[in-house]
Amino acid sequence: MLKRKRNKTKPNNVTPFIPEGDFYYTKGVEAFKKRKFDIAIKWIQKAIDDKPSFPLYKCQLSIIYTEIGSYHKANQLLTEVLQTGEYIDCYYLAANNYAHLGLLQDAKKYAQMYLDKKPEGDFSKDAAQLLDFIEIEDEEEGSFALEDEDELIILQETAFYHMENDEWEKAIPFIEEIMENFPEQKLAVHDYAQALFYTGKKEEAMHIEEDMLEDYPNNLHSHLNLALFYYEAGEPDYQKHIQIINNIYPMHEEQKLRIAEVFAKTANYALAYERYQNVSGEQAKRRASYYKWYSMTAYQSGNPSKALRLWEEGLKRHPKLSKEEGPWALKK
After folding, report:
1. Where on the tree of life does the source sit, at the highest rank (predicted)?
2. Gap between the Cα atoms of 287 and 172, Å rounded
């Protein structure tokens, strides 16, 4: 008896769902509106991967990075967009990021470029307000007399010398004078917090930076100091500040150097080594601490020959390093 053959072929009437860039983008915007930034970043990145040349997606991702304080990452994306075409809104978005970073001249340039190209644009009012703010700042800076500038430089250099040599008690009077006579020099507050911490007033130092973060949540120097303070105090909270710092890629050499040094001092040697490689210029080499911590970082990262070269160069420039035992034996 013949068996009936079964038809194993089924009708293919199901259309497979293949998400595209617009779908990912929509999901990302929805997550962003709900302030679920990590999820929003993942969705928008998928949209970019699907359509890498589409400017809107990168602009939206830059806005998310701006919202979470990753201003350098935001501007990197905006720069990529401007390199492939002229998406005018990028100029204002970049200006806003530079203003948050304190790079007011860069902010001024991009805000003016936006207004020149799109005087009636969606961000024209915001750009004009930003330019007004920068103009006021410029006027305040220009009001200093030359003798005041000379006095400030002398105070800063003297404080720097004592801090670089771990003479924190001697540094405090000069830092206090800067804070009293030049209140616009905000970095002095962070130097003061360091001086307090290393002269035994640790809780007071932490409170200064914690209070500063309440008013300025994206203050890089507060995150740097707190990462170091918490680490040296044995408190695990230092890790959240390390994570924030790791998302910041400043343009200024002084900030690059400070980030690298804090990574080194908190035993994040891989992160420190990457950052030290991007530090350049004589400004860094005038510091004995640059050679001390960079050589240690190189050694701990599996580069003993580079550590030795750095150490030898450091000894030539800063003979006082001879009192140290070298990168292979350095202790915090």
Report:
1. Bacteria
2. 20
Q: What is the pTM of this model?
A: 0.59
CATH number of 21-136: 1.25.40.10
Contacts of residues 252-259 at CB distance under 8 Å and 24 or more positions apart, as own/partner, are: 252/103, 253/279, 253/280, 253/281, 253/283, 253/284, 254/283, 255/220, 257/283, 257/284, 257/287, 257/290, 258/221, 258/224, 259/220, 259/224
Q: What is the pLDDT of residue 2?
A: 39
Task: Pick 249-332's CATH classification: 3.20.20.70, 2.40.50.140, 1.10.10.10, 1.25.40.10.
Answer: 1.25.40.10
Tell how many helices (H) and how many strands (E) occur in the chain.
Answer: 18, 0
Report phi then psi at 206, rounded to 5.
-65, -40
Tens of pLDDT along 25-46?
A: 899 899 988 888 889 999 999 9
